[in-house]
Amino acid sequence: MKQPFFTITHVDPNLEKNITGNFEKRLISMTITETRGITADTIEIKLDDSDGKLGFPKRGIKLNVSLGWKNQKDYNYIISNIFIIDSYEHTGTPDVLTIRGRSANLRDTLVENKDDSYDQMTIGEIVSIIAARNNLKYVIDEDIKSIILDHMDQTKESDASFLTRIIEDVNGIVAIKKDKLLIFKRGQGIKPNGEKLESMTIMRKSGDNHKYIIDDRSGYKGVKTFWYHYKNPTPMPIKIRYKKQLDKSKEVLIGTTEKVKVIRYAFANEASAKRAAESELAKIKSGTSHFEINLAEARPDLITEMPIKVYKFKDDIDSEDWTIIECKHSLTGVTGQKGFSTRITLEITPGEQIYQNIL
What we know:
By secondary structure, the protein is of the alpha+beta class. Helix content is 15%, strand content 47%. It has seven helices and 22 strands.
Protein backbone atom coordinates (compact mmCIF):
# COMPACT_ATOMS: atom_id res chain seq x y z
CA MET A 1 0.00 0.00 0.00
CA LYS A 2 1.49 3.32 -1.02
CA GLN A 3 1.75 6.16 1.46
CA PRO A 4 2.52 9.87 1.13
CA PHE A 5 6.14 10.73 1.79
CA PHE A 6 8.11 13.95 2.12
CA THR A 7 11.64 15.09 2.87
CA ILE A 8 12.93 18.52 3.84
CA THR A 9 16.60 19.44 3.59
CA HIS A 10 18.17 22.68 4.80
CA VAL A 11 20.23 23.95 1.86
CA ASP A 12 23.40 25.67 3.02
CA PRO A 13 26.56 26.48 1.01
CA ASN A 14 28.67 24.72 3.63
CA LEU A 15 26.41 21.86 4.68
CA GLU A 16 23.11 20.32 3.60
CA LYS A 17 21.18 18.81 6.50
CA ASN A 18 18.12 16.56 6.35
CA ILE A 19 15.65 18.07 8.84
CA THR A 20 12.59 15.98 7.94
CA GLY A 21 12.45 14.62 11.51
CA ASN A 22 11.80 18.14 12.84
CA PHE A 23 8.54 18.27 10.85
CA GLU A 24 7.11 14.75 10.84
CA LYS A 25 5.39 14.69 14.23
CA ARG A 26 4.24 18.31 14.10
CA LEU A 27 2.94 18.53 10.54
CA ILE A 28 -0.64 19.78 10.23
CA SER A 29 -0.48 20.45 6.50
CA MET A 30 1.90 21.14 3.63
CA THR A 31 0.71 22.76 0.40
CA ILE A 32 2.83 23.30 -2.70
CA THR A 33 1.25 25.48 -5.40
CA GLU A 34 2.58 25.64 -8.93
CA THR A 35 1.19 28.34 -11.22
CA ARG A 36 1.68 29.00 -14.91
CA GLY A 37 4.05 31.53 -16.33
CA ILE A 38 7.05 33.11 -14.70
CA THR A 39 5.47 33.44 -11.23
CA ALA A 40 7.34 31.63 -8.46
CA ASP A 41 5.86 28.42 -7.03
CA THR A 42 4.92 28.65 -3.35
CA ILE A 43 4.91 26.46 -0.26
CA GLU A 44 2.97 26.72 2.99
CA ILE A 45 3.70 24.48 5.98
CA LYS A 46 1.54 24.47 9.13
CA LEU A 47 3.08 23.00 12.28
CA ASP A 48 1.57 22.10 15.64
CA ASP A 49 3.09 24.26 18.40
CA SER A 50 0.66 23.30 21.17
CA ASP A 51 3.60 22.61 23.50
CA GLY A 52 5.18 26.00 22.72
CA LYS A 53 8.57 24.50 21.91
CA LEU A 54 8.90 25.57 18.27
CA GLY A 55 11.33 28.36 17.42
CA PHE A 56 10.82 30.79 14.55
CA PRO A 57 12.70 30.07 11.30
CA LYS A 58 15.17 32.52 9.81
CA ARG A 59 13.81 34.35 6.81
CA GLY A 60 15.86 33.75 3.68
CA ILE A 61 16.85 30.16 4.47
CA LYS A 62 16.51 27.65 1.64
CA LEU A 63 14.63 24.37 2.01
CA ASN A 64 14.77 21.58 -0.55
CA VAL A 65 11.35 19.93 -0.35
CA SER A 66 10.40 16.64 -2.01
CA LEU A 67 6.87 15.24 -1.91
CA GLY A 68 5.32 12.14 -3.45
CA TRP A 69 4.10 8.60 -2.89
CA LYS A 70 6.06 5.88 -1.11
CA ASN A 71 5.61 2.14 -1.62
CA GLN A 72 7.51 -1.00 -0.73
CA LYS A 73 9.69 -0.96 -3.84
CA ASP A 74 10.78 2.61 -4.30
CA TYR A 75 10.36 6.24 -3.34
CA ASN A 76 8.66 8.64 -5.74
CA TYR A 77 9.92 12.19 -5.17
CA ILE A 78 7.74 13.49 -7.99
CA ILE A 79 7.57 17.05 -6.68
CA SER A 80 10.95 18.50 -5.80
CA ASN A 81 11.89 22.14 -5.49
CA ILE A 82 14.02 24.55 -3.49
CA PHE A 83 12.06 27.22 -1.62
CA ILE A 84 13.24 30.42 0.04
CA ILE A 85 11.37 30.99 3.30
CA ASP A 86 10.20 34.60 3.27
CA SER A 87 7.45 34.79 5.91
CA TYR A 88 5.94 33.06 8.92
CA GLU A 89 3.14 33.64 11.38
CA HIS A 90 2.15 32.27 14.77
CA THR A 91 -1.51 31.92 15.71
CA GLY A 92 -3.44 30.48 18.62
CA THR A 93 -5.24 28.95 20.35
CA PRO A 94 -4.45 26.17 19.40
CA ASP A 95 -0.92 27.37 18.68
CA VAL A 96 0.14 26.92 15.07
CA LEU A 97 3.31 28.05 13.30
CA THR A 98 2.80 28.70 9.57
CA ILE A 99 5.87 28.93 7.33
CA ARG A 100 5.66 30.26 3.77
CA GLY A 101 8.17 30.41 0.94
CA ARG A 102 8.62 30.80 -2.81
CA SER A 103 10.64 28.81 -5.30
CA ALA A 104 14.24 29.85 -5.73
CA ASN A 105 14.40 29.48 -9.54
CA LEU A 106 13.42 33.09 -10.29
CA ARG A 107 16.68 35.02 -10.66
CA ASP A 108 16.94 38.30 -8.76
CA THR A 109 18.14 39.98 -11.96
CA LEU A 110 14.87 39.03 -13.67
CA VAL A 111 12.80 41.11 -11.27
CA GLU A 112 15.06 44.18 -11.17
CA ASN A 113 13.67 47.19 -13.05
CA LYS A 114 15.60 48.09 -16.19
CA ASP A 115 15.51 50.56 -19.07
CA ASP A 116 16.07 49.31 -22.60
CA SER A 117 14.82 49.76 -26.13
CA TYR A 118 14.44 47.30 -29.00
CA ASP A 119 14.12 48.44 -32.64
CA GLN A 120 13.10 46.27 -35.57
CA MET A 121 13.99 43.02 -33.85
CA THR A 122 12.43 39.58 -33.79
CA ILE A 123 11.09 38.24 -30.52
CA GLY A 124 13.81 35.59 -30.76
CA GLU A 125 16.50 38.28 -30.80
CA ILE A 126 14.95 40.06 -27.81
CA VAL A 127 14.70 36.79 -25.86
CA SER A 128 18.35 36.04 -26.64
CA ILE A 129 19.41 39.41 -25.16
CA ILE A 130 17.32 38.98 -22.00
CA ALA A 131 18.38 35.36 -21.48
CA ALA A 132 22.08 36.28 -21.84
CA ARG A 133 22.00 39.10 -19.28
CA ASN A 134 20.23 36.81 -16.79
CA ASN A 135 22.60 33.90 -17.48
CA LEU A 136 19.75 31.66 -18.64
CA LYS A 137 19.51 29.14 -21.44
CA TYR A 138 16.25 29.20 -23.36
CA VAL A 139 13.92 27.28 -25.65
CA ILE A 140 11.47 29.19 -27.85
CA ASP A 141 8.69 28.22 -30.27
CA GLU A 142 9.80 28.80 -33.87
CA ASP A 143 6.67 30.75 -34.87
CA ILE A 144 6.98 33.11 -31.90
CA LYS A 145 10.72 33.42 -32.45
CA SER A 146 10.27 34.79 -35.98
CA ILE A 147 7.74 37.55 -35.14
CA ILE A 148 9.11 41.02 -35.91
CA LEU A 149 8.45 43.85 -33.45
CA ASP A 150 8.78 47.36 -34.86
CA HIS A 151 9.73 49.08 -31.61
CA MET A 152 9.43 48.14 -27.93
CA ASP A 153 10.45 50.18 -24.89
CA GLN A 154 11.29 48.67 -21.52
CA THR A 155 11.01 51.60 -19.12
CA LYS A 156 11.58 50.95 -15.41
CA GLU A 157 10.25 47.44 -15.99
CA SER A 158 11.74 44.10 -14.98
CA ASP A 159 12.83 41.58 -17.59
CA ALA A 160 10.24 39.16 -16.21
CA SER A 161 7.40 41.67 -16.63
CA PHE A 162 8.56 42.91 -20.04
CA LEU A 163 9.05 39.43 -21.45
CA THR A 164 5.67 38.27 -20.14
CA ARG A 165 4.01 41.32 -21.73
CA ILE A 166 5.39 40.86 -25.22
CA ILE A 167 4.87 37.09 -25.23
CA GLU A 168 1.27 37.36 -23.99
CA ASP A 169 0.60 39.80 -26.85
CA VAL A 170 1.29 36.96 -29.31
CA ASN A 171 -0.76 34.44 -27.27
CA GLY A 172 2.29 32.77 -25.75
CA ILE A 173 3.49 31.75 -22.30
CA VAL A 174 6.81 32.39 -20.53
CA ALA A 175 8.02 29.97 -17.85
CA ILE A 176 11.22 29.04 -16.05
CA LYS A 177 11.95 25.39 -15.33
CA LYS A 178 15.28 24.02 -14.15
CA ASP A 179 17.04 27.35 -14.80
CA LYS A 180 15.87 27.43 -18.40
CA LEU A 181 13.61 30.03 -19.99
CA LEU A 182 10.73 28.38 -21.88
CA ILE A 183 8.60 30.28 -24.42
CA PHE A 184 5.78 28.50 -26.19
CA LYS A 185 2.28 28.93 -27.59
CA ARG A 186 -0.57 28.92 -25.10
CA GLY A 187 -1.78 25.34 -24.65
CA GLN A 188 1.38 23.82 -26.17
CA GLY A 189 3.63 23.37 -23.13
CA ILE A 190 7.16 22.06 -23.44
CA LYS A 191 9.82 20.49 -21.23
CA PRO A 192 13.20 22.15 -20.56
CA ASN A 193 14.67 19.92 -23.30
CA GLY A 194 12.19 21.33 -25.81
CA GLU A 195 10.01 18.21 -26.05
CA LYS A 196 6.25 18.58 -25.83
CA LEU A 197 4.54 17.64 -22.57
CA GLU A 198 2.70 14.32 -22.74
CA SER A 199 -1.09 14.38 -22.46
CA MET A 200 -2.72 12.85 -19.36
CA THR A 201 -6.23 11.47 -18.81
CA ILE A 202 -8.42 12.06 -15.75
CA MET A 203 -11.61 10.07 -15.10
CA ARG A 204 -14.42 11.46 -12.96
CA LYS A 205 -14.02 8.60 -10.47
CA SER A 206 -10.50 9.91 -9.71
CA GLY A 207 -11.88 13.11 -8.16
CA ASP A 208 -14.08 13.77 -5.16
CA ASN A 209 -15.39 17.15 -6.36
CA HIS A 210 -15.19 19.49 -9.33
CA LYS A 211 -16.30 22.93 -10.50
CA TYR A 212 -16.93 24.14 -14.05
CA ILE A 213 -16.84 27.91 -14.54
CA ILE A 214 -17.42 30.27 -17.43
CA ASP A 215 -16.04 33.77 -16.91
CA ASP A 216 -13.88 36.38 -18.62
CA ARG A 217 -10.35 36.28 -17.25
CA SER A 218 -8.63 37.49 -20.39
CA GLY A 219 -9.44 41.14 -19.69
CA TYR A 220 -9.26 42.05 -23.38
CA LYS A 221 -11.49 45.02 -24.25
CA GLY A 222 -10.56 45.39 -27.91
CA VAL A 223 -9.10 43.57 -30.92
CA LYS A 224 -6.72 45.04 -33.50
CA THR A 225 -6.23 43.71 -37.04
CA PHE A 226 -4.27 44.89 -40.11
CA TRP A 227 -5.00 45.11 -43.81
CA TYR A 228 -3.62 46.34 -47.12
CA HIS A 229 -4.41 45.68 -50.76
CA TYR A 230 -1.85 43.11 -51.85
CA LYS A 231 -1.51 41.47 -55.23
CA ASN A 232 -3.26 38.19 -55.96
CA PRO A 233 -5.02 37.82 -52.58
CA THR A 234 -5.61 34.24 -51.41
CA PRO A 235 -8.48 32.98 -49.25
CA MET A 236 -6.16 33.04 -46.22
CA PRO A 237 -4.62 36.28 -44.89
CA ILE A 238 -0.83 36.66 -44.76
CA LYS A 239 0.95 36.14 -41.45
CA ILE A 240 2.86 39.28 -40.44
CA ARG A 241 6.54 38.50 -40.02
CA TYR A 242 8.32 41.61 -41.30
CA LYS A 243 8.30 45.32 -40.47
CA LYS A 244 7.59 46.28 -44.09
CA GLN A 245 4.24 44.49 -43.83
CA LEU A 246 3.28 46.68 -40.87
CA ASP A 247 4.54 49.82 -42.60
CA LYS A 248 2.14 49.37 -45.52
CA SER A 249 -0.79 48.16 -43.39
CA LYS A 250 -3.78 50.07 -42.06
CA GLU A 251 -5.27 49.15 -38.68
CA VAL A 252 -8.77 48.19 -37.63
CA LEU A 253 -9.68 48.39 -33.93
CA ILE A 254 -12.93 46.94 -32.63
CA GLY A 255 -13.68 47.71 -28.98
CA THR A 256 -11.62 50.00 -26.74
CA THR A 257 -7.89 50.63 -26.36
CA GLU A 258 -7.84 49.64 -22.65
CA LYS A 259 -6.39 46.18 -23.31
CA VAL A 260 -6.07 45.09 -26.91
CA LYS A 261 -5.54 41.65 -28.43
CA VAL A 262 -3.54 41.90 -31.66
CA ILE A 263 -4.19 39.54 -34.58
CA ARG A 264 -0.90 39.45 -36.46
CA TYR A 265 -2.23 38.78 -39.93
CA ALA A 266 -2.50 41.15 -42.91
CA PHE A 267 -5.93 40.88 -44.50
CA ALA A 268 -6.60 41.69 -48.15
CA ASN A 269 -9.14 44.43 -47.42
CA GLU A 270 -10.75 46.40 -44.61
CA ALA A 271 -13.94 44.30 -44.57
CA SER A 272 -11.97 41.10 -43.92
CA ALA A 273 -9.94 42.70 -41.14
CA LYS A 274 -13.08 44.11 -39.52
CA ARG A 275 -14.91 40.79 -39.62
CA ALA A 276 -11.99 38.97 -38.03
CA ALA A 277 -11.73 41.57 -35.24
CA GLU A 278 -15.47 41.48 -34.57
CA SER A 279 -15.49 37.68 -34.48
CA GLU A 280 -12.54 37.56 -32.08
CA LEU A 281 -14.06 40.16 -29.73
CA ALA A 282 -17.40 38.31 -29.70
CA LYS A 283 -15.56 35.13 -28.72
CA ILE A 284 -13.78 36.96 -25.89
CA LYS A 285 -17.07 38.42 -24.61
CA SER A 286 -18.72 35.01 -24.63
CA GLY A 287 -16.46 34.06 -21.74
CA THR A 288 -13.66 31.65 -20.96
CA SER A 289 -14.23 28.18 -19.51
CA HIS A 290 -12.26 26.95 -16.50
CA PHE A 291 -12.50 23.57 -14.83
CA GLU A 292 -11.31 22.69 -11.32
CA ILE A 293 -10.91 19.11 -10.09
CA ASN A 294 -9.94 17.95 -6.62
CA LEU A 295 -8.24 14.56 -6.87
CA ALA A 296 -8.69 12.64 -3.62
CA GLU A 297 -5.54 10.65 -4.41
CA ALA A 298 -2.73 13.06 -5.24
CA ARG A 299 -1.19 13.15 -8.70
CA PRO A 300 2.22 14.77 -8.13
CA ASP A 301 3.12 13.87 -11.72
CA LEU A 302 0.70 16.57 -12.94
CA ILE A 303 2.34 19.92 -13.75
CA THR A 304 1.26 23.23 -15.23
CA GLU A 305 0.91 23.47 -19.04
CA MET A 306 0.31 19.71 -19.29
CA PRO A 307 -2.47 18.80 -21.78
CA ILE A 308 -5.39 16.95 -20.17
CA LYS A 309 -8.42 14.97 -21.37
CA VAL A 310 -11.27 14.36 -18.91
CA TYR A 311 -14.06 11.78 -19.10
CA LYS A 312 -17.42 10.99 -17.50
CA PHE A 313 -18.28 14.56 -16.50
CA LYS A 314 -20.62 16.41 -18.91
CA ASP A 315 -20.47 16.18 -22.70
CA ASP A 316 -19.53 19.88 -22.99
CA ILE A 317 -16.66 19.30 -20.56
CA ASP A 318 -15.44 15.96 -21.91
CA SER A 319 -15.37 17.23 -25.49
CA GLU A 320 -12.79 19.94 -24.76
CA ASP A 321 -9.01 19.74 -24.77
CA TRP A 322 -7.75 21.17 -21.49
CA THR A 323 -4.46 22.61 -20.18
CA ILE A 324 -3.39 22.76 -16.53
CA ILE A 325 -2.81 26.34 -15.38
CA GLU A 326 -2.42 25.64 -11.64
CA CYS A 327 -1.55 22.61 -9.48
CA LYS A 328 -2.01 22.58 -5.72
CA HIS A 329 -0.62 19.52 -3.93
CA SER A 330 -1.69 19.22 -0.28
CA LEU A 331 -0.51 16.85 2.43
CA THR A 332 -2.61 17.00 5.61
CA GLY A 333 -1.74 15.52 8.98
CA VAL A 334 1.15 13.31 10.01
CA THR A 335 2.32 11.25 7.02
CA GLY A 336 0.12 8.20 6.45
CA GLN A 337 -2.60 9.22 8.92
CA LYS A 338 -4.57 11.66 6.80
CA GLY A 339 -4.60 12.67 3.17
CA PHE A 340 -2.52 13.60 0.16
CA SER A 341 -4.55 15.31 -2.57
CA THR A 342 -4.11 17.41 -5.71
CA ARG A 343 -6.33 20.22 -6.93
CA ILE A 344 -5.86 21.30 -10.53
CA THR A 345 -7.27 24.25 -12.43
CA LEU A 346 -7.68 23.81 -16.19
CA GLU A 347 -8.42 26.10 -19.11
CA ILE A 348 -9.54 25.15 -22.59
CA THR A 349 -6.60 24.62 -24.91
CA PRO A 350 -6.93 27.23 -27.67
CA GLY A 351 -7.13 25.78 -31.16
CA GLU A 352 -5.18 27.19 -34.07
CA GLN A 353 -7.28 30.17 -35.17
CA ILE A 354 -8.16 30.17 -38.87
CA TYR A 355 -8.94 33.53 -40.50
CA GLN A 356 -10.19 34.14 -44.03
CA ASN A 357 -10.28 36.98 -46.51
CA ILE A 358 -13.52 38.22 -48.03
CA LEU A 359 -12.72 38.08 -51.75
